[in-house]
Amino acid sequence: MTIRIGIIGAGGIGQAHTARLTTVLSGGRVVAVSDLDAERAKALAEPLGATVYAEGAELIVAEEVDAIMVTSSGPAHEESVIAAIEAGKPVFCEKPLAPTAAACLRIMAAEQQAGRQLVQVGFMRRFDDSYRQMKELLDSGEIGQALMVHCAHRNPTVPEIYTADMAINDTAIHEIDTMRWLLEEEFVTARVDRPKKTRNRFPHLQDPLVLILETESGVRVDDEIFVNSQYAYDIRCEAVCESGTVSLTDQHKIARRNGGRNHSALAASHVDRFDGAFTTELQAWIRSVETGKVAGPSSWDGYAAAVVCDAGVKALLGDGGTVMIAMIEKPAFYVDGGPTDDT
Ligand code: ISE
């Protein structure tokens, strides 16, 4: 069975996912594309023989489309995701699920109304081999319970259109989701520390910053966000546990030695650092469409991340104090993948 996929949003990530679906993954085929920019949609669709739809809404209800991939800009996600749910079609939505917790709640309401989970959110780090190995070790209990986690998320540079809140909403959101998944706990407080600013930033940014989160049981997570680090895309994570530690290693691409030196090539962006994770994530989505059971991050996870982001942004823009995080109780619908076709 080949899942016929419609892509809404033909920008960078839409193109990257399409390339994966076309060349690396099995079980899915891109048959339809829609983008506000018709030329961009055409450029993506034509080589694949896919149909271009002027409106995402038309693509969603098209007979030839079995499942939807939403790779448009964050604020446009809600409309497409809800329309896909209403059409009863599975939908993969890039992160963030929606820019506000209120919008995520509307998506969850539509999904519960539909009676089965249909949404997977693009938090790809959950599919990264090294994070998965960390989780396996933590789950085994071999090194005791996690007490603290030190994270760093460094990008070489960001463009001028990157706004102050994006340090949380667009960048730290990855650690927020990954830590919820790794620790299997929700966060209850957020604070932002503001170190000395780099001269290599645009003036509207606080760069670097440290987001400090605390979970229900008291695990402290610190996340250094440094988006003008200049040198590489560097993702770090160390969990300090009761009787040991576990951390990601340096993600070298190659190690070169010459001229009396040891040079290690580091990732330049999330595209190469998380290449394998993106592939595993999308393959898992295709399989889940086949089985009818969402297997990755759900709308609930999209909502939970949005609530923590809202608190993080409030802390960043506030007076340096601690912000309480208030989430709704997790609906039974989202426990263990929720109801399926057969329930
Ligand atoms: C970007 O939007 C991403 O999603 C990347 O994974 C992240 O590392 C980067 O910081 C964000 O700006």
Task: Describe the structure concisely.
The protein is built from ten helices and 15 strands.
Describe this structure in words.
The structure is a single chain. This protein has 343 residues and is α/β, with parallel strands linked by helices. It is 36% helix and 23% strand. It is built from ten helices and 15 strands. The strands form three sheets. It has a seven-stranded mixed beta sheet with strand order 12-11-7-10-9-8-15, covered by helices on one side. Strands 3-2-1-4-5-6 form a six-stranded parallel beta sheet, with helices on both faces. Helix 1 links the parallel strand 1 and strand 2. Helix 5 packs antiparallel against helix 10. The longest helix is centred in the last third of the chain and has 19 residues. The radius of gyration is 20 Å and the shape is globular. The structure holds (2R,3S,4s,5R,6S)-2,3,4,5,6-pentahydroxycyclohexanone (ISE).
Which kinds of small molecule does this entry bind, naming each only once? (2R,3S,4s,5R,6S)-2,3,4,5,6-pentahydroxycyclohexanone
| C-alpha termini separation | 23 Å
How would a crystallographer describe the biggest sheet? 7 strands, mixed
Strand order of the largest sheet: 12-11-7-10-9-8-15
* Radius of gyration using CA atoms only: 20 Å
Multimerization state? single chain
Helical amount? 25-40%
Helix count, DSSP H or I runs of 4 or more residues:
10
Order of helices and strands: EHEHEHEHEHEHEHEEEEEEEHHHE
Shape: globular
| Stretches with pLDDT under 50, minimum 5 residues | none
Mean pLDDT: 96
What fraction strand?
A: 15-25%
Q: Which structural class do you get from the secondary structure elements?
A: alpha/beta
How many strand units?
Answer: 15
